[in-house]
Amino acid sequence: MNNKKFPEDFLWGGATAANQIEGATREAGKGWTTSDTSKFIEEPEKRMQQMLAPMTIQRVQEALEDAEGLYPKRNGIDFYHRYKEDIALLAEMGFKTFRFSISWARIFPSGDDEAPNKAGLQFYENVIDELRKYHIEPLITMSHYDFPLALSFKQNGWASRKTIDAFEKYAEVLFTRFKGKVKYWITFNEMNVIGMTGYLSGGILADKLAENQSNTQVNFQAAHHQMVAAAKATALLHKIDPEAKMGCMIVRFENYPETTNPTTILTALKSDQENFLFSDVLMKGRYPSFSKRLFDERGISLSITPEDEQLLADNTADFFSFSYYMSGIVAENEGDETAGNILASKANPYLKKSEWGWQIDPVGLRISLNKIYDRYQKPIFIVENGLGAKDTLTVDNKVNDDYRIDYLRAHIEQIAEALADGVDIIGYTPWGCIDLVSASGNEMSKRYGFIYVDLDDNGDGSLERYKKASFDWYQKVISSNGEVL
Ligand code: BGP
Q: Is the pTM of this model over 0.90?
């Protein structure tokens, strides 16, 4: 029997994030967020480093006062005003689900205001209602690299345990307001990134740390606070809206050992364990046994209360979700490096690369899916995958993105293989389903979408939307439930 079939209720869709599409960053009462300090810089080689760099109070203030610089995430693709047109295009492709994020600072401008911002709640209710009009399931990320800056200044973001309470209040407002309308929630985007850099997701300012505090120690304590907050949000969701499901989300680093040298294999094993550290906590309800040695070796000593432990044990996530773009190598020795999502890697001679140097590895997705399902035995949502590429709009407003169709087709084929391997996969939302501002580069020229947006790296363009060749292709993939590729 050809069981490489997709389940009848498979959730085909696409993914975005508030800070990369909405714009209107100071409209309707929204507060400043960490993504508002992301400046477009000319030198491509410095862009990923800028996204991951520690930030200081002074540099944040300079960015907020900078009248000259270009901050593309403050304008996005103007989804805030164009969401009805955009959702109509997603519906035309036949989307079953749409992943977007709610910007915490649109609901609580200072992060922990007494009362929520009504205009912010109304905007997201309008988006959710528009999606449901087309029977598109909202898949909502509660925090996607746009932490409320007021809480960075007030209590250094997730470095403070107090931020757990602010997040819990934010969660309660969302789950109460949207009860019965939203079935799938995710707390933090790529929650394992905070272990590597504190500002992007944690809103941590390097110069607010005490003299004796190391970035690593603070980032892992902040990750612990986020996990406690995720457990509290899961408990709240199950109480307020029992039909809804809570997921956790990581960036998957599928890294292969470069040689058969046992020490290199061991390094790759350790790298894999670290990639799953935080999802182990949220999916299994406790820190994994390997974490003790990992923390000792890093000089990390977490402050964990008995209440924390009980919360984590009692409120594990309902599904696992992850972003997957490429695979990497655990090198035996130095060698030609290539770029990657968040982390660079040594080049793999068996793989081609995107124009941004990310190694294209569809089989790697099947490998990850098998590893993840073996580890957790819970439903899996692939919430980011895709090819960032320089698309060209023709004079008759067409984009021939066969390269993107090839990339997605190859990855969908491997999802079908993983389903036949027995992996329980519930949905697939390719990243940047409509062109948007790149997370790492703040550039529009790194396009992922089925829909072209007429906007360039300098913020110029009509903002008109045009269907690419992949728009019609994906429409057929969805209508045939993955049969026609
Ligand atoms: C992930 C983020 C997304 C998205 C993606 C692509 O890490 O969760 O927000 O941007 O990376 O990265 P980039 O936009 O840098 O190409």
A: yes
